[in-house]
Design a protein that fits this description.
Helices cover 54% and strands 0% of the residues. By secondary structure, it is mostly helical.
Length: 97
């Protein structure tokens, strides 16, 4: 029998158990922003309250700068379509901790 397709529209954040897992999740958010900016910002908003040490906070702040720089650069491109990137949401940026 063919496998049934999943109807997931959003991705849940995986449970993390250590610093390395959190750092990998933060880094993954910087890659996700290239194909789904609202989802990446949602991930980062979910990650922010779970940071427990300075290594994670430093990594978070680096990725926030990377994501914001990418979004600023994207808006200057001629092929940028606000509706395609953001849908019905208004464009937003992240703030460092």
């Amino acid at each position: 029998m063919p496998r049934k397709k999943s109807n997931l529209t959003t991705f849940a954040i995986a449970s993390v158990s250590g610093t390395t897992d959190m750092l990998n999740l933060i880094t993954d958010a910087s890659y996700v922003v290239k194909w789904n900016a609202p989802l990446a910002l949602s991930w980062m908003d979910d990650i922010a309250p779970r940071l427990v040490n300075y290594i994670e906070i430093d990594a978070y702040n680096r990725v926030v700068r990377r994501i914001n720089n990418y979004l600023n650069h994207l808006e200057k491109m001629r092929y940028y379509d606000r509706k395609e990137v953001w849908g019905s949401l208004s464009p937003t940026r992240l703030e460092e901790i």
